[in-house]
Amino acid sequence: xxxxxxxxxxxxxxxxxxxxxxxxxxxxxxxxxxxxxxxxxxxxxxxxxxxxxxxxxxxxxxxxxxxxxxxxxxxxxxxxxxxxxxxxxxxxxxxxxxxxxxxxxxxxxxxxxxxxxxxxxxxxxxxxxxxxxxxxxxxxxxxxxxxxxxxxxxxxxxxxxxxxxxxxxxxxxxxxxxxxxxxxxxxxxxxxxxxxxxxxxxxxxxxxxxxxxxxxxxxxxxxxxxxxxxxxxxxxxxxxxxxxxxxxxxxxxxxxxxxxxxxxxxxxxxxxxxxxxxxxxxxxxxxxxxxxxxxxxxxxxxxxxxxxxxxxxxxxxxxxxxxxxxxxxxxxxxxxxxxxxxxxxxxxxxx
Length: 351
Prior knowledge:
Layout: E1 4-8, H1 13-25, E2 29-34, E3 54-58, H2 64-74, E4 78-81, H3 88-93, H4 96-119, H5 122-125, E5 129-135, H6 159-178, E6 182-187, E7 189-191, H7 200-209, E8 214-217, E9 223-228, H8 229-242, E10 248-251, E11 256-258, H9 259-273, E12 285-288, H10 303-309, H11 317-330, H12 332-342
Parallel strand pairs: 1-2, 1-4, 2-3, 4-5, 5-6, 6-10, 7-9, 8-12
Antiparallel strand pairs: 9-11
């Protein structure tokens, strides 16, 4: 059965992985909606752009008129809402854009999805889903023990996580108040190919290749659970098509690592694959003033999606990180265009 997927933020890191999987591995049709901010990149969609089941609309999810026109023309069965401002450091420098897009844009999209759902013929209503993709950062910070579960209380600590928490609550409200068929996912830190190089892993890879300093916040002991992006895309499609309405699912990679462990692992792989005549890449590590409000530890209990929907990640951190480094070594044009113009690796969010 072929469904029609509307994917907001589909030119971004996670969104483009979802779209590549949808077009490459399923019979479904896809309409990508993306504003193409600095983090949106059509080059990430080039592998599927020639498909007759793919279309692209440059549009802002805050623009209610455009959203109504796109819904009316494409008539989706599934909305996968990934469009968001997503970088904590940028949210510290400029929180307004995060409130506008993540809160206001989600509200606009929910209103249009509800209008569209109510107008669908009964035969199509049963298949309709609004899938909201969120983050584990809404839960706040963990101590040395424990895991985030679906019923963990929200305690966001940055403008970014607060804006995502607000959007999560809106989605839940539109389901319970208006009967919009929704599912929601909260994921841990993603990494992999096509990742915009302001985030830790791609920034460290590219700085190391260019012989630049590898800036590590604070003492480098902040812990994150790492999830390979293609594993995440598989989980998202599983939830979008088989998730129980009104439920949320945590998606994690079962890979807790300190930031300094991640950086040293990247250095070791590069020492093997692209040795630097000046010496081991780890010599470039420098410790810098910590991010304001830097959460100590995130870790996800992904047991629910495993038990109920049968999803588990395929990649270990070691296999996924090697694949990631190899991809950046082989795709210098993709990241070279970004490094030469849009973003050069400067420090953000020092407040």
